[in-house]
């Protein structure tokens, strides 16, 4: 099978790698660190299956366009992608489907928004209605900060048009969990659960980012929890979408909080998580291409098969992320990190030192240099028989990777390793 992956980040690198176990893979536009990258648009690539990575092309209708010309596409149509493209609409679907979520209001007028804010207490959560690359969420105990965010979002100053409508919701507490379900329009199967780290700093300090690391499996989130997510969130949502004439074929990613009152959906994404994909996909034992092709055809028959192993990924970001990002620095240590047992480096915000280096093999394997070219630059994934080993391997890989101002969190999966070690001790 020939598969065309659309996108250019670490998620797409992981998709290409795992699909490459059984298929020929091209990635558009990809990046110089991903084998098989090509600048040709998806519409000009003849493939048996198209897998669309990022949310923006889905919201813009790329899946519809490729389907209209006869392609088999894994990724929802623009109508389904609205789940991520508009948080206000997503909340409306959740309410109609009876899915538990945080109480909220959505507003485009400042007076109404500030009035609603004043009815709330303790923990304030302000979100852009539209897409903001994972950065449009503020969680704060400071009412003045929340009010200032509402002003800067609604004025367009902070996030342009994406923020001209805001969702204000009650703050929830509890551990978070990401469950990515592969859907074929009516049926769905879950991939292994993962936990990601959205805040920039160790101990969950600092601003929200696209994600600074992730691990899978998640201690305490066994089959019972995943079944509950499917029964209370994913399947009712798919049924509600179908009732509205939307046959959702793609990943439905439920971002959840396990609150003292039970699980609640914080958000839906309409794609694989980034960096969750970089831990969930490499752990897969069954064939990813068969699974996605079945879902894309509306005929999901396979269930993903996982072993008992674990994976941890650590994001290496450039100086200044997420507010800005320093670019153009030479990345050292890729080959050394990749050569370690159980370590894979996935490339995200990278460029080639000399142009025209996209090709069958990644630039750095052909003697070329990779440069930093974005906020999240690389993901170093460690795999092993348990979380402790996977974590050790990921951080061993990270020690080889260097450029001026390289930034990583050092506590990815630390608590999970501690809690699983505690459970194993007599
Ligand atoms: P979202 O993009 O909606 O997942 O939000 C990004 C992050 O903000 C989540 O992963 C949570 O850490 C946090 N967050 C979102 N909604 C809430 C909420 N209602 N209460 C507390 N934290 C939240
Ligand atoms: N890791 C969060 C996301 O993909 O949105």
Mean pLDDT: 93
The structure class reads alpha+beta
Bound molecules: adenosine monophosphate, glycine
Percentage of residues in DSSP E strands: 25-35%
Q: For the CA atoms, what is the radius of gyration?
A: 21 Å
Major beta sheet, specifics? Answer: 5 strands, antiparallel
Question: How many helix segments?
Answer: 13
Distance between the termini: 49 Å
Share of residues in helices = 25-40%
Q: In one word, what is the shape?
A: globular
Uncertain segments are none
The total count of strands amounts to 21
Overview features:
about 425 residues, alpha+beta, 5-stranded antiparallel beta sheet, 4-stranded parallel beta sheet, binds adenosine monophosphate, binds glycine
Describe the structure.
- The N and C termini lie far apart (49 Å).
- Helix 4 (78-85) crosses helix 5 (87-97) and helix 6 runs antiparallel to helix 7.
- The protein is built from 13 helices and 21 strands.
- It has a five-stranded antiparallel beta sheet with strand order 11-14-17-21-18. Strands 2-1-3-4 form a four-stranded parallel beta sheet, with helices on both faces. A four-stranded antiparallel beta sheet has the order 5-8-6-7, sandwiched between helices.
- 51% of the residues are buried.
- With 426 residues, it is of the alpha+beta class.
- The protein is 30% helix and 26% strand.
- Adenosine monophosphate (AMP) is lined by residues 102, 125, 127, 137, 139, 169, 171-172, 176, 198, 208, 255, 266-267.
- Residues 102, 125, 127, 137, 139, 169, 171-172, 176, 198, 208, 255, 266-267 line the site of adenosine monophosphate.
């Amino acid at each position: 099978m020939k598969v065309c992956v659309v996108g250019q980040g670490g998620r797409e690198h992981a998709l290409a790698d795992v699909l490459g176990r059984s298929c020929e893979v091209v990635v558009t536009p990809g990046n110089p660190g991903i084998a098989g990258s090509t600048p040709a648009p998806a519409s000009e690539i003849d493939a048996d299956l198209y897998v669309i990575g990022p949310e923006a092309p889905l919201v813009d209708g790329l899946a519809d366009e490729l389907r209209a010309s006869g392609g088999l596409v894994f990724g929802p149509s623009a109508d389904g992608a609205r789940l991520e493209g508009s948080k206000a609409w997503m909340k409306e679907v959740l309410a109609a489907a009876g899915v538990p979520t945080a109480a909220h209001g959505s507003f485009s007028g400042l007076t109404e928004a500030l009035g609603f804010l004043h009815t709330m207490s303790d923990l304030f959560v302000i979100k852009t209605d539209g897409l903001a690359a994972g950065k449009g969420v503020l969680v704060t105990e400071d009412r003045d900060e929340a009010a200032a965010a509402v002003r800067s979002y609604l004025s367009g100053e902070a996030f342009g048009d994406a923020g001209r409508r805001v969702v204000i919701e009650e703050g929830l507490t509890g551990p978070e969990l990401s469950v990515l379900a592969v859907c074929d329009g009516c049926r769905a199967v879950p991939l292994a659960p993962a936990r990601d780290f959205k805040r920039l700093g160790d101990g969950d300090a600092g601003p929200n980012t696209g994600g600074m690391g992730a691990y899978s499996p998640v201690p305490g989130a066994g089959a019972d929890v995943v079944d509950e997510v499917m029964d209370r969130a994913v399947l009712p949502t798919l049924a509600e979408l179908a009732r509205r004439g939307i046959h959702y074929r793609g990943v439905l990613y439920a971002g959840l909080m396990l609150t003292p009152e039970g699980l609640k959906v914080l958000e839906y994404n309409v794609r694989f998580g980034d960096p969750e994909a970089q831990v969930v996909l490499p752990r897969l034992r069954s064939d990813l291409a068969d699974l996605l092709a079945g879902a894309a055809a509306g005929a999901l028959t396979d269930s993903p098969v996982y072993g008992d192993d674990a994976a941890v990924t650590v994001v290496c970001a450039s100086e200044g992320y997420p507010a800005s990002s320093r670019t153009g620095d030479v990345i050292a240590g890729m080959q050394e990190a990749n050569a370690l047992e159980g370590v894979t480096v996935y490339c995200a915000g990278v460029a080639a030192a000399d142009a025209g280096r996209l090709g069958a093999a990644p630039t750095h394997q052909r003697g070329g240099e990779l440069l930093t070219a974005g906020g999240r630059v690389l993901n170093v994934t460690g795999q092993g028989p348990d979380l402790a080993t996977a974590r050790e391997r990921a951080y061993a890989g990270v020690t080889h990777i260097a450029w001026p101002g390289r930034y990583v969190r050092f506590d990815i999966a630390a608590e999970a390793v501690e809690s699983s070690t505690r459970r194993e001790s007599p």
